[in-house]
Structure formats: structure tokens, C-alpha cells
Amino acid sequence: MDKNQSLGFSIYRRQQNYQTIAEKRVGGSVFYGKGLGLFDSFGGLYSYEDIVANFPVSGSPTPPGQPAPPTKFTEVTGRTSSVTPTYRFDNRNDPMDPNRGRRFSASMQVAGLGGTDYFLKPLIGTSIYIPVRFPKYSYIGLNLEMAYVKPFNGKQLPIFERFQIGGEQSLRGFQAGTVVPLMDNNQVFTDDLGRI
Q1: What 3-state DSSP class applies to 23?
Q2: DSSP letter (8 states) at residue 174
Q3: Distance CA 103, CA 105 (A)
Q4: CB–CB of 103/92 below 8 Å?
């Protein structure tokens, strides 16, 4: 409409399998964005998801000399209805292969507009690209991302809304979802139900 704005929607059915976790998400979203200046914009997203996920449950230790028992799983379901306002600044010289400029984004997902899940999830990310003289056509790229998630209204945080660290878009050198917290004795952290 000859204005610096965007409007979009999506309907999806997505299945992800990483490590021993299987997750199915069915949902949709509606998005509106408005440019504030040459490099910055504000947007809002409403989304609804119906989620079914299977997570491995750690059993008791296997006695020496005995075969490991088959992996046990627990099914977790939930419905997330949320709104996410977003601010973005981006003056990189190329969105796909930048070598100069910076990017900043901040968002706050608020879930609890119906559904079964109630949480706040703020995310902040920034990147800067600095050209260097040697070697020729090189640059330094620095990226920082911070996020936090907190349940409210007396609800527990759904396990599928926890952060999964690892993978090219998260922490390179590790497969998706393989970086997990350890307890003091270097054992993998599990919740009250034994889920990793």
C-alpha cells in the first residue's frame, strides 16, 4: 500500500526430531510490522500452537555387566497462545553476507492469552561486523544473544519452551540440543520427572 509496513500470516504443521526428542507443532501466526526510520522497525506477532513432544526419561543406573534398558519417553502436551512485540535495528550492508554494520533486536513473548501455557520470554540479540585491513576482504563478526523464560500465574514452564542450545544458529561445533546443564557431580541435569 505504498507504506513502510509489512503484514503476513502463516499456518504450519512442523515435526522436529533432534537427539532422542520428537516434537510436533501445529499452529499459525499473524504478523504486522511498521518501519520507524531508515534502519529500525517495530512489529507485533500473535501465534497459536498445539504442541506434542516426547522427551527421554533417565532411568536408574544399569548394573555392571547388564545391557542398557531401552530408552523410556514421557509425552508432554500443551497449547501456547501468545503475543510478541519486537523492535529491530539493522544497518548491515547485506542481510545474507554482511561485512560491515550492526544489528540489534529485542522482543518479549507473552503467553497466556488462552491455551495452557503461561510464560514471559524476553530475547535480546546484537551483531556487529567490522572490516579489517589484513587479510584483504576480511572482517570480524561478533554476536551476542541473551534470553530468559519465566512462568507466571502459578503455572509450570513447559519443557518444550525451555531453550535448546547447540547447532549452527545457536552454538557452532555442537549438534542441536546437545548442550545441556550439568549438576555438581557432572551428571546430566534432569527435572522431577527424570526428563533431561
Answers
A1: strand
A2: S
A3: 7
A4: yes
Give which of 50, 19, 73, 86 is closest to 158, Cα–Cα. Answer: 50
This prediction's pTM? 0.81
1-59 confidence digits (pLDDT tens)? 888 999 999 999 999 887 677 889 999 999 999 999 999 999 999 999 999 988 777 66
Q: Dihedral sign, CA of 152, 153, 154, 159? A: negative
193 in Cβ contact with 159 (< 8 Å): no
Whether the CB-CB separation of 71 and 20 falls below 8 Å is answered with yes
How far, in Å, CA of 45 to CA of 109, rounded? 9
Tell me the pLDDT tens digit for each residue of 78-101. Answer: 999 999 999 999 999 998 889 999
Q: Please state, in angstroms and rounded to a whole number, the distance separating the CA atoms of residues 71 and 92.
A: 46
* CA separation for the pair 105, 8 (Å, rounded): 19
**Count of residues making up the chain:** 196
CA dihedral 9, 97, 86, 151 (to 10 degrees): 90
Query: Is the alpha carbon torsion for 44, 17, 15, 196 positive or negative?
Result: negative
- Taken in order 132, 133, 135, 138, the sign of the CA dihedral is positive
Closest to 14 in 3D by CA, of 40, 53, 68: 53
Residue type, 128: I
